[in-house]
């Protein structure tokens, strides 16, 4: 019995090991044979026949010269000394600081003019990627070169050159630089829409400013967002390849040496890699880069809708087949969306040929379209998909809209109140209310913390304008409407100048 077990184990191990040796011998004529297959210069992980080890060296020899170190110098004002001008340069202070070291000592003229105008040159380091060798275009992050007085790029062959800024886009954190040097190596953009979780990736950059560093890992998630400022256009590729300070602006490449993203952010408590890094995907970069080259800026468009994600409760209340899509919670008057016939409660599922799965998708898709473009938009209404054309207009600097209040009022009766949704107290809207949109609807005067109403998202001073897409005029109409349906229902809620949908049971 023991012999049988030993023989079986030996056979199993021979089966596992055999392909490695067979591959190596079968491709002995190739300098860099692939693991378990024919040699292919487009693939990264190979066996070095001279050493017999797996290596990425040939791939890196082709790609690392395209990743550059970026040194930035900028001038900043030194914060004013709060004790400047006070007579603190006395014997007591000098016992602690010495005559030269006393930080509160005035200058020789007895004033603080020098302190008022004191400046300091700051230096920082980052990374960049040569995306077009003949034209000298280098991609990096906006935050790497923001407020720079001078940008110096160092190549792997130690050549140095001053870079010119072609344009930057803070909302995607992308910047495009230009350098004038011969013989530049470039990397090509991949189709980042084809990237999948589990793909092998390599991060290259100037980690901690110590010089070019290479780390490896896989794509650990796609479509990441909402961990940074809400005004950013986010659709990050997440990777567990170590990305640290100084990697910003560096390359995230696939096993063929194609650029799938520009490393942009890390999620960390310590400031170093915790196995979660984020890269701006190549397809987003492509459109941004074209506009930076053409205009020196990104000219984003808008269609004039307020949107939100679809929660499980909203899906149930609206009778939707899935949570895919972006729910229209507001349509601005005379906007492209209004002219195209979109209405509150529609669910946008496709824009300009791109599938829309959530509110980030539609925001990114519209923001990537240049103003003046006519795009195709598909949406769900009453359970049916409708498609139409929509114009994309220029996005204003301030995207808040001013709604005009109306004078439609009820007779001045004392508002009644009702406890609804297990925790919300509702009343008629007072006749002297200055709320945008008039006095049709009901006012939330109190929400008990931890109640169903609170968990659903209702808050004090919200105004419920509609229930299940049915406009309500007052508290009586509200009570009549909520009595018509058991289970989940969705409310159109005005909060300040914004409209949102809230689903409650």
SSE map:
Layout (H helix, E strand, L loop, with lengths): L1 H25 L19 E3 L4 E3 L1 H7 L3 E11 L13 H11 L11 H4 L2 E14 L4 E4 L1 H4 L4 E5 L5 E3 L1 E6 L4 E5 L21 E6 L7 E12 L11 E4 L11 E4 L4 E8 L10 E5 H14 L5 E2 L2 E4 L3 H7 L7 E6 L4 H5 L6 E5 L2 E2 L3 H9 L6 E8 L2 E8 L1 E2 L22 E4 L3 E5 L13 E6 L4 H5 L6 E5 L2 E2 L3 H8 L6 E7 L2 E7 L1
Report the CATH topology name of the largest domain.
Thrombin, subunit H
Mean pLDDT: 77
Number of strands: 30
CATH class group of the largest domain = Mainly Beta
Classify the helix fraction into a percent range: 10-25%
User: What is the rounded distance between the termini?
Assistant: 65 Å
Alpha-beta content class: alpha+beta
What is the 3D form?
A: elongated
Give the biggest beta sheet. 7 strands, antiparallel
The fraction of residues assigned to DSSP E strands is 25-35%
Gyration radius over CA: 31 Å
Low-confidence stretches: 1-40, 398-415
Number of distinct helices: 11
Q: Any guess at the CATH architecture of the largest domain?
A: Beta Barrel
Strand line-up in the sheet with most strands: 7-6-3-4-5-9-8
| Count of folded domains | 5
